[in-house]
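Sequence in, structure out. Go.
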Amino acid sequence: MTVLVTGSSGHLGEALVRTLRANGHAAVGLDVIPGPCTDEVGSIADRACVARCMEGVDTVLHAATLHKPHVATHSRAAFVETNVTGVLVLMEATARARVRAFVMTSTTSAFGDALKPPPGAPAAWIDEVVTPVPKNIYGVTKTAAEDLCQLFHRNEGLAAIVLRTSRFFPEEDDDPQARAAYADDNAKANEYLFRRVAIEDVVDAHLAAAERAPSIGFGKYIISATTPFRREDCARLRAEAPAVVSLRASGWEEEYARRGWRMFPSIDRVYDNALARRELGWRPKWDFAAIVKRLRETGDLRGPLASAIGEKGYHPQRFEGRPYPVGDG
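Output:
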């Protein structure tokens, strides 16, 4: 298997290339920024560049994107150029090359305002049935790219899988209130209950999707750590989350007390990965209980792959008092 990985200088792209090569697969890394796993420096919107990279490729893992942290620093046109035009160029080249599988990294951010229930309402249970309501140019362009995948499957017979990933980045939260109220690792550990996923599991999901794509044809899947919660918990999660966590995932209390950590008092959404586990044969290893166990044993949330890649950030410059500026876009 020869795999083209776009965004190979980014957090996920590097993780994909590292894992593929470690497993004996040939991988070609493409990114606009040089990096240790990038073989070709260029844009996914550059047709000549993409054509060069596509030679001999039978699988494309498309992780390149402008992200939510770029909304305040990049124009809407730049988002369209990368997140929509770039996908179109890739898919046209993929269809011409008769590549066996195309896997696109999307985002749970595409759900947008569907993730925010009104005050007093139960937490939102987010599965693939929920209709996205994008709230910025990032979400709009990612849902447009998802539709392109479906179009190329229908019109060109391309096997295309969309993975809507939840949080796996190591950077600090962009919410100043969350940063002020919780230690960074405390907040990230809490998020494994409902909105975070380990990079190792994201990589495994992409590899599983590439394997199953020809038999599935087209599909969209939520990629997040397996939640211990049930739909019937949603009302209590909004009002008294710690009690529900103790009910569904006991064993964290002592480790949290030892560290001086706190559980979130309220949880407003839960990502359900059941469809991905069922249809992709994906078996995520790192849920909340496994993360607490690793904390107890090693003192670190991160696994070896995340530690090796480290933090990359989203901008060449630093922003005082915050990881990046937040814009509405």
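Check: Residues 2-227+267-285 form a domain with the Rossmann fold fold (CATH 3.40.50.720). The mean pLDDT is 94.
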